[in-house]
């Protein structure tokens, strides 16, 4: 049977449309979910999802909420600053009740989106935004870093410890303030003169790499600190810290303190032997709690402030380096934590969350 040219043309056109429609990404439904199909979206900062830091920890928290609260969750990964606002807009367009954003870079985008969408619950990690439907998730990491500084001074053999940051910003310098004050407290208690290099709390200035992703900079900066005699180093610089870990491992007699998450679990296993401890932000626990509030319609804009008292911050176990921390020093750190929780010792920083 012969088929006319016009019929053949229509068939070809129809097939082409089928192929094109198969290549397109279906838009997310914009109908607001009911309580029975509650969903959440997360937007990372430009560091990406596997940052071994708070993007990764926040997503782990949202995944935990997905299981424990019976919700659905997806993440939108920002690989550059130009992705931030479009990703927030896409998260809102999903119709989900809760949108989690991670890092100060997202403050302008989330502030704009929250104003335009008053019925959506937003949270932002590591920045404080005053809006009726944005809940800041912040951490008084100076408290936990104080413990880490005391510990570092206690295990140092050279009498020098060090810290550096990715940028001179409150969420970074908060760690550094606590760390140097913890070293100073150890000196006060023990009559020692352990020196903390890389940061001046009084001047609020110190050593920074200028970014949070270039591991080469972390390697170079840390080698410089090791050359100055530092044998315990705290990098507060996201992925840059992996370069610091490489330098410490290469040196052979230097230990590292990680930040945000337990580096023993998130860093490559090769670095485990040099990890003294980690100053943790327990972001995941906070995320589960806040998503639950959004689902139950009890969400408020009152900031969540993680502290030693509420378990929002802390230091990890000593893992492979436990034998390097004497029982006496372990007991002192434990007592120090109890004193901070009780208010006997007050840890201060101009960058502390309110």
The helix content, as a percent range, equals: 40-55%
Q: Uncertain runs with pLDDT below 50, 5 residues or more? A: 1-35
Number of strands: 14
Described by its quaternary structure, the protein is: single chain
Strand order of the largest sheet: 2-1-3-4-5-13
Give Rg in angstroms.
24 Å
Outline: globular
Q: Helical segment tally?
A: 11
Which structural class do you get from the secondary structure elements?
Answer: alpha/beta
Strand residues, percent: 15-25%
Describe the overall structure:
With 354 residues, the protein is an alpha/beta fold. It folds into 2 domains: 35-139, Rossmann fold; 141-281 and 318-342, Rossmann fold (3-Layer(aba) Sandwich), CATH 3.40.50. The protein has 11 helices and 14 strands. Strands 2-1-3-4-5-13 form a 6-stranded parallel sheet, sandwiched between helices. It has a 6-stranded mixed sheet with strand order 7-6-10-11-12-14, sandwiched between helices. A two-stranded antiparallel sheet has the order 8-9. α9 links the parallel β11 and β12 (275-281). α3 (84-93) runs parallel beside α4 (107-116) and α7 (215-227) crosses α8 (240-251). The longest helix is centred in the middle third of the chain and has 21 residues, at 170-190. Mean pLDDT is 90; it is low at 1-35.
What's the quick description here?
The protein has helices at residues 5-23, 54-68, 84-93, 107-116, 141-155, 170-190, 215-227, 240-251, 263-266, 283-295, 327-342; strands at 39-43, 72-76, 98-102, 121-125, 134-139, 160-165, 195-197, 199-200, 205-206, 232-236, 255-260, 275-281, 304-306, 313-315. It is of the alpha/beta class and 354 residues long.
């Amino acid at each position: 049977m012969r088929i006319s040219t016009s019929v053949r043309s229509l068939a070809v056109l129809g097939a082409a449309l089928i192929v094109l429609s198969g290549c397109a990404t279906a838009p997310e439904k914009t109908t607001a979910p009911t309580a029975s199909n509650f969903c959440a979206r997360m937007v990372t900062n430009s560091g990406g999802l596997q940052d071994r830091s708070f993007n990764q920890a926040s997503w782990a928290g949202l995944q935990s909420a997905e299981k424990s609260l019976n919700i659905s969750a997806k993440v939108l990964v920002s690989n550059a600053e130009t992705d931030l606002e479009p990703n927030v807009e896409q998260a809102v367009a999903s119709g989900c009740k809760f949108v989690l954003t991670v890092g100060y870079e997202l403050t302008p985008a989330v502030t704009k989106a929250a104003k335009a969408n008053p019925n959506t619950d937003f949270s932002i990690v590591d920045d404080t935004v005053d809006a009726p439907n944005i809940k800041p998730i912040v951490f008084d990491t100076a408290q936990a870093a104080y413990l880490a500084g005391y510990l570092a001074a206690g295990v140092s053999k050279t009498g020098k410890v060090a810290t550096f940051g990715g940028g001179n910003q409150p969420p970074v310098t908060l760690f550094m303030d606590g760390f140097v004050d913890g070293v100073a407290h150890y000196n006060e208690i023990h009559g020692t003169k352990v020196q903390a290099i890389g940061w001046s709390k009084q001047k609020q200035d110190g050593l920074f790499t200028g970014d949070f992703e270039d591991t080469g900079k972390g390697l170079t900066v840390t080698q410089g600190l090791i050359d100055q005699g530092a044998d315990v180093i705290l990098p507060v610089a996201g992925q840059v810290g992996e370069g610091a870990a490489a330098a410490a491992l290469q040196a052979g007699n230097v230990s590292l303190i990680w930040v945000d998450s337990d580096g023993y679990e998130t860093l490559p296993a090769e670095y485990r032997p040099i990890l003294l401890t980690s100053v943790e932000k327990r972001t995941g626990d906070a995320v589960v709690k806040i998503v639950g509030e959004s689902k139950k319609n009890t969400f408020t804009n009152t900031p969540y402030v993680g502290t030693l008292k509420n378990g929002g911050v802390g230091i990890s176990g000593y893992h492979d380096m436990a034998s390097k921390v004497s029982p006496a020093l372990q007991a002192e750190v434990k007592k120090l934590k109890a004193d901070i929780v009780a208010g006997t010792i007050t840890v201060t920083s101009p960058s502390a969350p309110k």
